[in-house]
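Hi all, posting the design record for the shared folder.

TITLE: backbone redesign
STEP: 1 of 1
STRUCTURE INPUT:
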């Protein structure tokens, strides 16, 4: 089986990035995918250290130094990802939008993970918004990316109970634990060609077990 070549983009600590890398080394993606490169847009982000620890090339393309438009910035990413012949792009805590040009270049094969049950609680402060609103259930969502914020076709979601005494510091890690399982699983489904998009509905062949 030819392994799917993955390009990862991250802005922060990169725990989801590392979970996926470990899945390609000794987990469900071992014989199915390989992470070829990490691109980071913030100097000093710990995700680059994680890449170094796994002998994965990393490239820093700083967004705060870019003076052009979004397409021009995304073109720098495309150049790197094409160099490593990446087929599937994963946004593992990337805190910027990507352009339609970027998405189209990779034929829509761009995945993101978000720490809520979309379409509820989009944006950068999902856990805070969940607690402020008082919902009883939250979770995480893996979806294909479109040009809108946290909006593309949903691949998989996992529910996590919200307790009355939860804070962002207690809720976040419980959701993150499932993020580290759901994201690699969605990549496995992609590698196995079990995902089929009809409109904004993602249909999955067969039963899925986490």
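Okay, here is what came back for every position:
SEQUENCE:
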């Amino acid at each position: 089986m030819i392994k799917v070549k993955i390009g990862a983009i991250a802005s922060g600590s990169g725990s989801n990035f590392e979970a996926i890398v470990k899945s390609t080394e000794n987990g469900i993606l071992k014989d199915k995918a390989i992470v070829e490169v990490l691109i980071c847009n913030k100097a000093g982000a710990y995700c680059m250290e994680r890449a170094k620890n796994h002998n994965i090339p990393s490239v820093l393309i700083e967004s705060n130094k870019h003076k052009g438009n979004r397409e021009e910035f995304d073109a720098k990413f495309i150049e790197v990802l094409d160099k490593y012949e990446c087929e599937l792009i994963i946004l593992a805590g990337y805190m910027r939008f990507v352009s339609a040009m970027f998405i189209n270049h990779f034929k829509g094969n761009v995945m993101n993970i978000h720490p809520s049950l979309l379409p509820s609680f989009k944006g950068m402060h999902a856990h805070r918004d969940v607690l402020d609103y008082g919902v009883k259930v939250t979770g995480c969502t893996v979806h294909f990316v479109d040009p809108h914020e946290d909006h593309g076709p949903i691949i998989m979601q996992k529910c996590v109970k919200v307790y009355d005494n939860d804070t962002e510091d207690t809720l976040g890690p419980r959701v993150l634990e499932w993020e580290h399982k759901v994201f690699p699983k969605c990549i496995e489904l992609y590698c196995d060609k079990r995902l089929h998009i009809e409109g904004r509905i993602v249909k999955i062949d067969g039963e899925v077990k986490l």
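COMMENT: The chain is about 35% helix and 25% strand.
Let me know if anyone wants the other runs.
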